[in-house]
Amino acid sequence: MAVDEALLESAITDNVATLRWYQWREPTVSLGYFQKSADLVDNDSIAGLPVVRRLTGGGAILHDNELTYSICLPASQSLFAQPHELYDIVHLAIIGSLRQLDFPVTLRGSTWKRPDEPLLCFQRQDAHDVTLNGQKILGSAQRRRRGAIMEHGSLIRKSSEHAPQILGLQDLISVSLPENLATILTVSVADAVAEAWSIGNLTESEIALCQNLEKVYCTNMQVR
What is the C-alpha separation between 152 and 156, in angstroms, rounded? Predict the structure, then answer.
């Protein structure tokens, strides 16, 4: 999460756009920015897992058998008229790649909200969700800061023992996922949002900011 925040700052200060795909070392829950950690107490299956807070909103995500992405775009980015349009740009690129791999995924197309929204993101329904056989397999959330925008997303590969009710691609259809799935998705999304792009590493200033953010967040472990 510190890396993603550093990349958002680079979008603000250096006018740099960055796409990142990654996985988690152990099953971890990321809370949406406005969620309360106390809400986890009533969910025995995930209550004991490591917890972090995202800059982006939305419901909690169990990061286990999935791929996470972040994309940070500067204020000068003119790909979309409204921030929500970025969801569809990214999601349609991912849909295109997954369909080429024989996963018949689609956008949900309609939003259904409850007065008491579920804790977990993948038990909520939004028009921009990517679904397979009616099941949500990819959801995203955003954060604006000084005109720049960050979008987080999670693609469920298969269900986790900590949340078996949330199904993934390989639970819903008997098609194998390639080991280089993240690379495939990187290319499709990068091509959708940029005329030219390159693979790179974090800059020294981004690494320094990450380290500082880690110290700050670890010192203030109580999350609201």
Answer: 13
Q: Classify 71 as helix, strand or coil.
A: strand
Rg (CA), the chain: 17
Q: Is 210 annotated as catalytic?
A: no
Catalytic residue among 72, 121, 210, 218: 121
What pTM was estimated for this model as a whole? Answer: 0.91
**What's phi and psi for 49, nearest 5 deg?**
-85, 160
| Residue (of 180, 156, 181) closest to 170 by Cα position | 156
Distances (CA, A) of 81 to 127, 146, 151: 18, 16, 16
DSSP helix/strand/coil, 136: strand
- Pairing between β-strand 28-31 and β-strand 61-63 as defined by DSSP bridges: antiparallel
Q: pLDDT (tens digit, 9 = 90+) per residue, 148-182?
A: 999 999 999 999 999 999 999 999 999 999 999 99
Residue with tokens 């740009």: 89
